[in-house]
Structures are given as C-alpha cells and as structure tokens.
C-alpha cells in the first residue's frame, strides 16, 4: 500500500505522535508513506514529503506538526493564493483527486478536527479511501471519549490557575483566567476543578453578573479575600453574545473567540471592593510538548488508523471509547459537538465543593440534593 498523511486545522500537541504512529506501523507492514504539507494545501498543490523511519524518529515528544497545517485549505472551496482567493473560493477537488491517483496512493489519513474531518468525509463520498484521526484541544468531538491535545492544554491551563492563586492571595484580588475551547467548556471546567477555581464560567451555563458578584462576596464574608475565576472563551452572559475577536474568511468555522474575561472584570469593577486582573492563555495552551497521556493516546490512534487501513475500513475515524481504541464512521463523528452538561457528575462534584458556575438559576435546578 502507499498512503498519504495530512494534518489540518489548528495544531495541537500530539500530532507528531500520530504521524509517527501511522508511519512506523505502516513501514513495518511494508507500505510506503508520504506526508502532505500544510493540510489539504499539499494535496491540492501536490506538495509532499516522503516519510521514512528516520523522518519520524524522535518526534513523539515534539509539539506542533512536522507536516505543517492550514485552517483554511479546503479542496472544495480553495482560497489560498495563487490558486484561489478569499473572495473567490474555487472547487479544486478534481486536481486533489488527480494528485492522489498520480502519486499512486491507496489511501489518505486525515488528522484534524471537525473541519478537516468534514472535508475528509466529502472526499470519501466522492470515492477517495480516507481514514480520519480526531484532534483538538477542545475535546468536543462526540464520537470519541477524548481527543489528543486536550490533556496537554489542560496541564497548561491548570498550571496557570495554580500560579495565579498565590498572587491573587497576596494582593487580595480577583484573578480571571481565560481558557480556549471554542463552544465547549471542557478545558475551563477541568482546569477549574483541578486548580481549585472558585468560579467556573462555561459556554454551556450562561452567567449572571449578580451570581458572580455574590460568589466573590460570599467568599469575602468567609474571610477569603481573593477569588479565582476560570472562564472559557466561549462563555457568555444570559442575555449576551459570545465575545468574537476575529473573523477568519475561508475557515470552516470563521469565528475566533477571546476576551470575555475583560467583560467579567468590567462587571466586577467597583462591586466587590476587590481589584481584578485578567490572564488570557490563548495559544500557549496549544504549544509545547504533549503530555505522556497525549503521546500514549496519539500513538494508539496512529496505530489504530493503520489497522483500519489494513482492513480497508475506509470512511472510518479512529476513536477512543471506554477503555479501548476503535473505529467509527466519519459521518457519525462530524458536526456533532460534545459539550458539558450542567447535570454532569463532574459539574455536580464542583458544586459539592462550593464552586460557583455563575448561574444558580441553572445549577440549582440540576444540583444533587
Ligand atoms: O479548536 C482549537 C482552538 O484552539 C480553539 O480552542 C480556539 O478557539 C481556536 O482553535 C483558535 O484558532 P486559531 O488558531 O485560528 O486562532
């Protein structure tokens, strides 16, 4: 067999470990492997590199992706110059198929999030043998219990919460730490719980200003003159909208979120007698080495992708369910976000140790009595 691999969408720790897992296991089966540069751009523009054992040796520890990535390259609506432009997206799926055939490929492994996997599914429907591998720090894909990159991001976010704790305590301040996660609050929730955050604000539980102020004041009354708020970038007030910082034309999801923590600081201003400060973690959460868990998960995903290829189970995506690796159909995996539910056990656990989610109207409804 000859297989092509690409990494698409936002990078995250563990991508290289998957590339290594797929490549090493493929080479041991006697297959040939090539890697397309910059996601689907490499497939459309026929820009690739041959991957041998040496190329993937030692990369399990490296963050980012040795293949490069793109969050806009889409074979069906190509916007990258010189072949396309944001104003005039072009359908370049035919040249993509031609490149696939001319290179003598038998299958494509697409490693990416919802956008990349949606394109993989479109290619599959048009006849390309494709296997998907789910990645995202947001951990928001419904067809797998966990995605690689999430644990690494969670470690960064938790360390940040730990670090602001001491400075918040010294100054009697409210420290607001903003995490990524798009429309799902997993990073904020778990970093908030692990870091002992006092208030956790999630996209899934729209906040009320009065509840956040009350939570800070209740702590003050108990002699705790500082508070830590962990807020997901997708959080919004009951009546408000999400905070959008940028619109990226040509991206499968053009909205870029960020800055809600400044709104929280503003609403607290002058209401609690405490000063507040904001830390927006941003891409720090996506950078650096993957954690041991993510290296383990990514290796398992890569090897499972090889098994699906060997069995010619195309149109499938590798997934981790319960305690094992498996394959599910890409079609069932895309366009379905896995979000935090207010009645989730871990939300209940946080409530039980006194954490506020900034809206007692919602959490009281589901609270374990
Ligand atoms: O989906 C991963 C993610 O890091 C989100 O958490 C974040 O909202 C977004 O990507 C940022 O995208 P970009 O790298 O394009 O700024």
Describe this structure in words.
- The strands form three sheets. The chain has a seven-stranded mixed beta sheet with strand order 3-2-1-4-5-12-13, with helices on both faces. The protein has a four-stranded parallel beta sheet with strand order 7-8-6-11, with helices on both faces.
- With 369 residues, the protein is of the alpha/beta class.
- The radius of gyration is 22 Å and the shape is elongated.
- It has two domains: 2-148 and 290-335, Rossmann fold (3-Layer(aba) Sandwich); 156-287 and 340-367, Phosphofructokinase domain (Rossmann fold), CATH 3.40.50.460.
- It has helices spanning 15-28, 40-45, 53-56, 93-102, 114-125, 150-171, 186-194, 209-221, 260-268, 292-310, 330-333, 345-352, 360-366, and strands at 2-7, 32-36, 48-50, 107-112, 130-134, 173-179, 199-201, 227-232, 244-247, 255-257, 275-280, 316-321, 324-329.
- 6-O-phosphono-beta-D-fructofuranose binds next to strand 10.
């Amino acid at each position: 067999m000859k297989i092509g691999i690409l990494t698409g969408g936002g990078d995250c720790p563990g991508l290289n470990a998957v590339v290594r897992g797929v490549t090493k296991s493929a080479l041991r089966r006697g297959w040939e492997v090539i890697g397309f540069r910059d996601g689907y751009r490499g497939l459309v523009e026929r820009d690739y590199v041959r991957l041998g054992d040496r190329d993937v040796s030692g990369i399990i520890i490296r963050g980012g992706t040795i293949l490069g990535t793109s969050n806009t390259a889409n074979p069906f609506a190509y916007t990258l110059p010189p072949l396309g432009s944001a104003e005039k997206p072009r359908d370049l799926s035919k040249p993509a198929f031609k490149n696939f055939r001319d290179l003598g490929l038998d299958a494509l492994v697409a490693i990416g999030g919802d956008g990349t996997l949606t394109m993989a599914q479109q290619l599959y429907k048009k006849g390309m043998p494709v296997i998907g591998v789910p990645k995202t720090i947001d951990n928001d894909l419904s067809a797998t219990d966990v995605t690689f990159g999430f644990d690494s991001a969670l470690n960064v976010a938790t360390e940040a919460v730990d670090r602001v704790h001491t400075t918040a305590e010294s100054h009697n301040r409210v420290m607001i730490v903003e995490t990524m996660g798009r429309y799902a609050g997993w990073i904020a929730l778990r970093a908030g719980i692990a870091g002992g955050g006092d208030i956790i604000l999630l996209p899934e539980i729209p906040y009320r200003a009065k509840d956040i102020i009350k939570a800070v004041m209740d702590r003050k009354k108990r002699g705790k003159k500082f508070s830590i708020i962990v807020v997901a970038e997708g959080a919004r007030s009951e009546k408000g909208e999400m905070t959008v910082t940028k619109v990226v034309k040509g991206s499968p999801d053009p909205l870029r979120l960020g800055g809600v923590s400044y709104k929280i600081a503003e609403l607290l201003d002058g209401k609690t007698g405490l000063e507040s400060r904001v830390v927006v973690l941003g891409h720090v959460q996506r950078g650096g080495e993957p954690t041991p868990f993510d290296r383990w998960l990514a290796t398992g995903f890569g090897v499972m992708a090889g098994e699906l290829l060997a069995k010619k189970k195309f149109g499938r995506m590798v997934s981790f369910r319960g305690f094992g690796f498996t394959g599910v159909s890409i079609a069932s995996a895309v366009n379905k976000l896995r979000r935090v539910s207010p009645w989730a056990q871990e939300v209940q656990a946080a409530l039980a140790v006194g954490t506020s989610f900034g809206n007692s109207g919602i959490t009281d409804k589901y609270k374990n009595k």
